[in-house]
Amino acid sequence: MASHHMLLAVLVILAAAVAVPQSAIATDFTVGDDSGWLPNFNYSSWTQGKEFRVGDNLVFKYMQGAHNVMQVGGPDFKVCNTSAVAINTFTSGNDLVALDTPGRRWYMCGFGDHCTRGQKLVVNILPAAISPASPPASPPSGPASPPPSPPPLSPASPPTSPPTPPFAPASPPTSPPPSPSAPATPPPPPPPPLSPASPPTSPPTPPTPVAPASPPTSPPPSPSTPATPPPPPPVSPAPSPSTSRASDRITAQAYQILMAATVAVAMAIAA
Fold this sequence. Notes:
- By secondary structure, the protein is an alpha/beta fold.
- Helix content is 39%, strand content 13%.
- The protein has helices at 2-25, 43-47, 74-79, 138-144, 157-160, 164-174, 178-184, 207-210, 221-224, 232-235, 241-270, and strands at 28-30, 52-53, 57-61, 69-72, 88-90, 94-98, 103-108, 120-126.
- Keywords: Copper, Disulfide bond, Electron transport, Glycoprotein, Membrane, Metal-binding, Signal, Transmembrane, Transmembrane helix, Transport.
């Protein structure tokens, strides 16, 4: 509350300061200076170098009853038409004429031939020049508000959230490794091929037809040592094509069984 009162006081002081220059800027121009308002005077030369603005005043000084001041239009002023209807007429001998609007104004004396003898004046009034004084009042209030705007610090929070995403993506890489590990396990299945050795027990029946050709003693060892059966096939083909076909059939079956077992083991490991 105290700050608000202080601000109001400052504004009042500024307003007063602005008002003072306005009255100081206003200028009273005494027409003709020391010569005053009279015939046979070059008032056109008197106006040279002078700036008449809204808020200024013209002061006409003359002998009361011997002269007057008539404000007329431009056409009447040019021909010194003293019988024209005047816009304003002043007769006090010490007339203060306020210049309250911008533009041209024409004045002349309505007595006798005074106008034709040079007792006339035309002035061009410019807009008031006090407007520039008002801008300074607004700047003081403006700067007061910017200081409380340090909220730019809030943007610092966004940086904290971005760091989390980098850790999230790190998790996906962990899942892929399992897949490559699964295929790595299938290599161990090769040992299981020993189980297919059981099927060869049934195949011994085909060799029976070959028994007549050679000693039947050779087949028995095969069941006891499943690893040895592969060697006999190369020797048996010599006797007859039928034996080679039988052995090929057995080998194909064994290979199929081996493949099936391998697939089963791989599926079991994957599960």
